[in-house]
Task: structure prediction
Amino acid sequence: MTEQSAGPGYAAGNGLLDRRFFLKTAVAGGAGLLSAAVAGKEREAWMRVPGAGMSESGAPSRHTAHIRRVGVSSKPGTVGSGVSRTPLEHLDGIITPSRLHFERHHSGIPDIDPGRHRLYLSGLVERPLRFSVDALLRYPQVSRIQFLECAGNSGALIAPQPRQQSCGELHGLISASEWGGVPLALLLDEAGVKPGAAWVIADGADAAMMSRSVPLAKMLDDAIVAVSQNGEPLRPANGYPMRLFLPGWEGNMSVKWLRSLRVTAAPAMTKDETSKYSDLKADGRADLFTFPMAVKSVITSPSPGLRLGPRGLYQLSGIAWSGAGRIRRVEVSADGGKSWAEADLDEHVLPKCLTRFRAAWDWDGGPAVLMSRAVDDTGSLQPDRAGVLAGRAPNAFYHYNGIQVWAVSADGEVSNVYA
Amino acid sequence: MCTPDLRGLLCLLLAAAAFAEDAPHLGEPLSAAEVEAIDFTVLPDGSGLPPGSGDARAGREVYRAHCQACHGEDGQGGINDVLVGGRGSLDGPAPLQTVGSYWPYATTLFGYLWRAMPYNAPGSLDNDELYAVTAYVLFLNDIVAEDELIDARSLAAVVMPNRDRFDHAWPPR
Result:
């Protein structure tokens, strides 16, 4: 952190305040609200009649019903081979509402009958097994709050000119949920892994039978067969009745609608781990098996489409995450990276999860350039865009984790720029 | 795989075994015939490939009926993924990653078609048709001859042009 142009009371240049600024001023703000409430004795219309009754399933306020997934698109000639993205700019905290969790499907969402679905475990095991959904639900479960990020998230940032899209459209292939399920290690132990086993080929019960090879070590470490998300059974778009969940690794490997696990000595080199989800380099060679998602952050507010009002105090807010572990620190800049201030992290700083960061910013009404950069607990620092692109082929868009730069104009518009 | 990896795996297996004492053991035995019926895993050495065969001549008809609408005549110019061409482009300004220019293993092509294609009716082609259309896409990429019979054995023996240009990031060094 540098203090290059910060004045008295400021943590970094161009108006960034101490990260505890809002905490210090919260009491005075609360008192102000209270006095306003007792000053008048008026009733709004909704305070004059009883409100609506209970219902069996909730829905967002009609005033926030516009908060929906964004960037919904599908390959030509298909309706179910594509993506939808989480509207990050409209969300706070670290948990993504299930209805807004991003989607990436390869042949649509299957309509699975849980009574007929089976999980098969075969290959290099002593006892090939099958599990019904009911049987699986009787196993000891664990739950963890963790992110899921598509390897292709933020891929638009490789474009030669910055695309003018919202934060969700650019970076919304990331979501976080409380995932509950059965540790894979339990099922593999029951089947008895044979010597020589090193990989597990997972496939789904969608029409593409999407399949990936997963190292056995990951399966035995922290992989689960997830059956619940945010306290309810998985939704069809997230793999009902069961999915693989591999914390911190590229989302494509967390195979949805999990039906088969085949233990092998070698990877299968499936289409989705060779022709896709591989990383072409400038010299024409390519990397396979780049599994963990690297340290990353983005300011979600303000961001394109969220126009600033009058000059004055604003809260910068965003998310940071790393597939390697916890977020150690997030820094923000309002002067295009000339100086940085440490952001405040919300209470929940969990491994392989989104961490919410916030910073107080006294906007002087002039042009500003906002950035955030994260460090994880392995010491990895989020690189800038040039650092990510160095050595890559010009079309290599997977695993983009560069620093996002938002330009704020004097009229409060926020745009995507390259520093 | 080097020794530290094996030691790590052993530790994980032992830890899993300790945890598993509480598990209800509700997995039902899966017979060899059942495994055969449900498993679509194809490995680069050809294991998992089913019986059957076909050549590019037969594959051309399959391709025209089931693939061309999305992938274009001769594997190019369609609305979806380009299957043919791009050789020599990977280190240039406009890399074109196709079956011919990029895919490391021919077995991957059969495995993918077997699982997922044709898009609107996966599972509708028989094994001979799948081998034939696999042969046709390889023929279009100048990898096999038009009359070369492709089956489990010959497919696993195909050496893809780009096979040796991949680096493995796992296991981590």
